[in-house]
Give the backbone structure.
Amino acid sequence: MRKPLLFTALVALASACIAQNDIPFRNTIAIDPGDSKERIVEKAAHIIPTANQLDALKNEFIAFIHFGPNTFTRKEWGSGTEDPAVFDLEELHTDQWCEAMKAAGMKMVILTVKHHDGFVLWQSRYTQYGIMSSGFRDGKGDILKELSASCRKYGLKLGIYLSPADLYQIENPDGLYGNLSTYTRRTIPREVPGRPFADTTKFEFVVDDYNEYFLNQLFELLTEYGPVHEVWFDGAHPKRKGGQRYNYKAWKELIHTLAPEAVIFGKEDVRWCGNESGKTRSTEWNVIPYGENPDTATHFPDMTDEDLGSREKLYKAKYLHYQQAETNTSIREGWFYRDDHLQKVRSPDDVFDIYERSVGGNSTFLLNIPPNREGRFSPEDVSVLNEAGRRIRETYGNNLFNGASAPEAVLDNDLSTFVPLKGEQKEIVINTPAPVTLNRLSVQEAIDTHGERVEKHTVDAWTGDSWKEIASATNIGYKRILRFPEVTASRFRLRVEASRLDPSIATIGAFYYETRPPQLQVSRSGDGKVNIRPVETGFNWKPHNESISENLYKNMDIRYTVDGSLPTMKSTAYSGPFELDGGAVKAVAVIRGEKGPVTSEVLGIPKNGWKVKETDSESARHKAGMAIDEDRNTWWQSESSERQHYIVVDLGEEYVLSGFAYTPRKQDSRGMMAGGIIEVSTDGKNWKPAGVFEFGNLVNDPTTRKYMFGSPVLARQVRVTATEIAGEDDTLAIGELDFYERLD
Ligand code: FUL
């Protein structure tokens, strides 16, 4: 018998409702073979963070500390063959670190207890390659111990970065990494005479030598330094050996047992945002499609695509999983401290901007502050942390919707109370007792009970007779911060225009950020002249709000110096591009008497008279001249070949050069110059070596690198020969070359 159409439709409708409701909220949900697109979206709407993930999200702003032999050798990547004595630390001021991090509003600090070089910063029982072999506190020092004591004092959580890549264990003849040892049952921790553990937990794992070493070290780190809240596994590998594999299942069991509150970075809990420059995607979904079950997977490839979690991506998944993004970047150029005068420090503008985009973009902000060779944060870094913290507190510590009339659940600043938005009109209206002026709005979803569901939302202000849209964005998730030109009103409306099932809104806040004079940038144009103007961020948003900034900048005065001194109101006023041979330009923007951050740029010699004399080859689209055209968006690319790639530049006249800078191509990591030789000549025939350089970590951090010659050299021609290309490529790419008479 044929069923009536209405009956069939009702059954279908009923089963759809049941289907929607029968999906349990989980951290991971499998996609079943016959799942429709709607069903997949419903499943995505039921993915929630674990309690540890939620706690990690609530940290919002956390610190990274890169410290080790590289701090003394001024390298980004050590080789693992450095003498431990190079770690020539005489003082350590972990209280000063914590005080500054606390002032910035950070909640946790993650220390590189072992970076890729394999040098350990704690008193490990399992190696002598580390602090115990340095002169620091007569070989008895323990940086993690001192930091953990300071963390307790200042109320900061502690995390550890333990590099799986280990060059000491690769390079040294008795090294364990990739030594092809057999897999056997081993007890963790391995007892070491005279060094008993207070914690009596024991593990049995079938592992090889390097995994045993790694697990023993994890055991020390997770049992002897107080609670650890994040374990950071870097995916980067300067080198590999012997097909070494990592027994992540064993690592995970050990971490879950010994540090039950920790999230694991680089694996299933927390993912890298995909770049090291502080860029969070404009739509950063934390519900991530997986091809295999992430709860049993051992390998987690980096995810760098712009779109990770749109509906189209979800449809291709076999599993959906909650995995939050961490936006990591450094306050200085590079991850390790090099110098106070040569290494640029981000301004408070920059740090505050990244804070708003990352924390307000469904991500966590992990900012690295590398201590200097005196064991302190340098004064400039401290003042940036203080100022960024002050702005965060002043802006986000004052919710202008306090006292407003709206559903209590969204105004109580409590993630566990929320307003479910059902039906066609998904909106919340907020009325303030008096008009308020705001330029920021923050919204949070109840992700721990209802998942991340909003796909598009808009905020309107009531103008007296109609609603006017003031800001709009895509997803919300843990938190979205909307930034817009200031508006004054007493009635506001949040509208959800698209969502994955019905969303639940947990908080709405309104804030005002007081716009400051902008950070400036100093650069040369093609004609060799020096330009000074407000920074244009590579992130395609205007830090000071388009309409406001245009007005503001009308009242802006720029003052600069070229003698190395700090600019004051008496310094030269900038009135347009000017000529300068080279050296330091320091500039500041002033608006109504208030000064912005001082920008300091050391400029190379002008390139108007330069010519490329010779290269080994050039590709059709990326000609050699693009390496010296003052445009960092174009680059010279050699052809693919095994031979050494080089470029000879004629500077047009003789100079006494002190150093050079290499800017890699921006667009992707092919052809990055990880090492090379510089030679100079005054006649184009007789060449003298000027230096041999190495640039570590270019692929992840493709920023300009500077190299100072041992002593100044007289040069008219310069030959740069690449001896090592990062990422095993066989072409060379140079975005820009600069040569300096002075680098300070
Ligand atoms: C990268 C490493 O290679 C860098 O040295 C740094 O530790 C950064 C956080 O991760 O991949």
